[in-house]
Design brief:
Keywords: Methyltransferase, Transferase
Number of strands: 11
Mean pLDDT: 90
Largest sheet: 7 strands, mixed
Distance between the termini: 65 Å
Structural class: alpha/beta
Radius of gyration: 22 Å
Protein name: Putative methyltransferase-domain-containing protein
Strand content: 15-25%
CATH superfamily of the largest domain: Vaccinia Virus protein VP39
InterPro entries: Methyltransf_16, SAM-dependent_MTases_sf
Pfam families: Methyltransf_16 (PF10294)
Helix content: 25-40%
Low-confidence stretches: 1-7, 146-150
Order of helices and strands: HHHHHHEEHHEHEHEEEEHEHEE
GO molecular function, one term: S-adenosylmethionine-dependent methyltransferase activity
CATH architecture of the largest domain: 3-Layer(aba) Sandwich
Number of domains: 2
């Protein structure tokens, strides 16, 4: 069974698998090739070269995650073997597995607290005109759960939903040629994706937490972004601190935007007064014309409070007719849809 005799169609299922792997989805949810595909030597070679080769692949997931995924892949290959003399298990995969399981294993607490580079891949339908996938690299903790003051170090489902919407022609049209600001940017995923691929004039990612600001600045370099992307500190209810050309920070009187973005900003009703004070500031003083917001509807009563506040503050909230695909049908920006996520356009 020579490698050169295999058609490239055998490699197509690997595109989704590698995108899921670099986003560090639960190994149980990875789209592994079926037995008749994964048994081919060329497929196993691509799996090694594109997912586990430390000499050429970056960023690599943590050792513990790689070991879990590789164990699952090797088990799938072993199950596919029907002729031990003809079917083989790639030696590079075996050697990598042996090496990974021999390394020290961090504790569960260490794994949850560890920040790791995540590479998100845009849905395949948005990159059909380009042979290179549209990817964004963040630095975050995928094991993070909600707790006060730390939620920004993870890209949550609403951000992935918003990124998916913006990856569509309708979504991208909001940003093309526009000046964009994101509120509560967290890991910077949405802002960096927009700046890299959606052709805005400029994108400013803002958050109130100093560690998140520093993290986004480092990820800016990792994503090869330049003057089209900036990071600013904004404590809602106070002046926006804007990065200047010499990378210092300060107020800028002539700063203006066309579009504001946000994801998961409505989960705490106590924050709504500050959020709306900020929206008034954006529309009144920064010339914003529309605010595109995605929200996970964990509590309908809480989100209704946001809609009521829109009406009370003389804003119009329009629910956009967009829903993410079911997880099994997604090809990028993978996220759960069990809890509804909606995207709204807020205007005056």
């Amino acid at each position: 069974m020579s490698r050169g005799s295999r058609g490239e169609h055998h490699l197509l299922p690997l595109n989704t698998l590698t995108a899921q792997y670099f986003q560090q989805l639960d190994p149980a949810h990875l789209s592994l090739p079926n037995a008749s595909t994964i048994i081919h030597p060329d497929v196993q070679t691509v799996i090694y070269d594109h997912m586990f080769n430390e000499a050429t692949v970056w960023p690599l997931p943590p050792v513990s995650y790689r070991a879990r995924v590789l164990k699952t892949i090797i088990s799938r290959i072993e199950e596919a073997i029907t002729d031990p003399e003809e079917d083989e298990l790639n030696s590079d995969l075996i050697e990598t597995w042996t090496d990974l399981i021999s390394r020290p294993k961090p504790s569960q607490i260490q794994q949850v607290q560890q920040l790791t580079y995540i590479k998100y891949t845009a849905p395949a339908a948005t990159t059909t005109t380009s042979p290179v996938p549209h990817t964004v690299i963040t630095n975050e903790s995928r094991g993070l759960i909600y707790s006060s003051g730390t939620t920004g170090f993870r890209t949550w489902e609403a951000s992935l939903h918003l990124g998916t919407y913006l990856s569509t022609p309708t979504g991208a049209a909001h940003l093309a040629g526009k000046r964009v600001i994101e509120l509560g940017a967290g890991t910077g995923f949405v802002s960096m994706y927009a700046a890299k691929y959606l052709q805005p004039q400029f994108v400013l990612a803002t958050d109130r937490e100093g560690p998140l600001i520093g993290n986004m600045k480092r990820c800016k370099e990792r994503n090869g972004l330049g003057a089209e992307f900036g990071v600013g500190a904004w404590e809602w209810g106070t002046p926006l601190v804007y990065p200047t050309k010499d990378d210092t920070e300060g107020a800028q009187e002539d700063l203006a935007f066309d579009v504001a973005l946000g994801a998961d900003l409505t989960y705490d009703t106590d924050l709504l007064p500050l959020l709306f004070a900020t929206l008034h500031d954006l529309f009144d003083n920064y010339h914003v014309k529309e605010f595109i917001l995605s929200a996970t509807l964990r509590n309908q009563k809480t989100f209704q409070a946001f809609l009521d506040a829109c009406e009370n503050n003389l804003f119009k909230a329009e629910c956009l007719p967009f829903e993410s695909s079911q997880p099994e049908d997604q090809t990028g920006f993978f996220h759960e849809t069990g809890i509804p996520i909606r995207t709204y356009r807020v205007t005056r």
